[in-house]
Amino acid sequence: HGLAVIRSVVVRKSVDTPFADIILKSTSLFGLKETWTEYIACFCSSGEQPYMWRDYAGGGDGCALVFDYSILMAGCDGGKRSSFFRVLYDKEKQVRVVQQILDCAIYLGRQLEVPRSQREQYWKQLVMPHLLACAIRFKDPILRHEQEFRLCAADPQGLLTPFVVGGKRRVSLDIETSALRKVIRGKSAGGLSVAQIRNLLNEHGFREDVPIVESALA
Hints:
Blueprint lengths: L1 H9 L6 H9 L12 E7 L5 H7 L6 E5 L1 H6 L7 E5 L4 H22 L3 H20 L12 E7 L8 E3 L2 E3 L9 E6 L8 H10 L8 E3 L4
Parallel strand pairs: 7-8
Antiparallel strand pairs: 1-4, 2-7, 3-4, 5-6
């Protein structure tokens, strides 16, 4: 979706032609999932909803973890390796953000009189990262009911150690354990007792007094 938004603006702007060709012909977001990886964990801020148990917790046989987003955000390192942000669903705002980035890039390039020999480097190294940072925050408006936040981990220096679970590459990222405010036990979690949940929390360094409550949803 993010790439589609960028393309819709690029075709109307006087950006560097080779850079425009890269965007219009690319099958991925600047090589994402092809030559490099961005790791994202998704959180929902719309409260407990039936579809969450259905889609993410085996129909209620698992648990929901309730976090304090302000603590998660404060625990990130300003985007150097991890960031925590709200997803943007408004299509007009998405387009406007991309327009502003490209307009600034075009204006700055003219002011600096970037020579033709350096334009490719200018657009790839200075402009592309800003477009990428926006695109991973964009989501189709039809999904706005999720009210999603994302914890994003980038690893350009290879400091994280990926592993595979369920056919997907993943990484382990430390979070501030005090951010966990509550655990909601699913209606169908008969094989997962409160005592077992408490043991799991203790094993991973969470507070002893984190409340464990039963889901109010069927």
